[in-house]
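ugh ok fine here u go
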Amino acid sequence: MARAVARIKRRGKLLNDDQGFVLIFSLLALVMVSLCGSWALKTATYEMKIAANEQAMDSNFNVSEGGALLEGANVGFVPANTPWYRISDPSATNQVLLPPLPPLAPDTTTYDPGNDMAHPPVTFVNRHRANSNNWPRQNLERNTTAANNKTDYAYLVTYLHPDIAPKGYDAGAFSGYKFRLNGENIITIEVGGIKIGVKSAI
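structure:
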């Protein structure tokens, strides 16, 4: 009987010693849940930043590509506002087609909307191909206000060389004229273009 009473007392003592276990376990669980919540918040923040960066990259790419293709569309048609795209001698290959410089064109906003060109050009020569800061500027929306620069782009159009006319054209009368088109809005792209015209002229 005495042994049974001693056993019960020992069990009671053990139970009394473990009374704070639930509190400690609860605190540890709370810390773990807080850490998981903090990790989830950081993950969501990183994902939002990644999505925003991807959206900005897509926008910059679209402006760069749109600018290059828009400038390329002017080549060969010689519109009144871009006479520098006229090629008088198609046999002179690798010509960089550039707008005129002051004093012939004192209004440089015609190729630098908003007057935000990083380094206004003094002269355009072949070496500027490696430095897009010296490329002409334009705006996809043809908006010349400095505040609207999200669709500004730098561009460079280069006449490469004549080539045989595509299938379906009279090779004796027509020729294909190839161009390289560069566009830049943070992202720089390069595409190729071709215009069809009569031989020795475009």
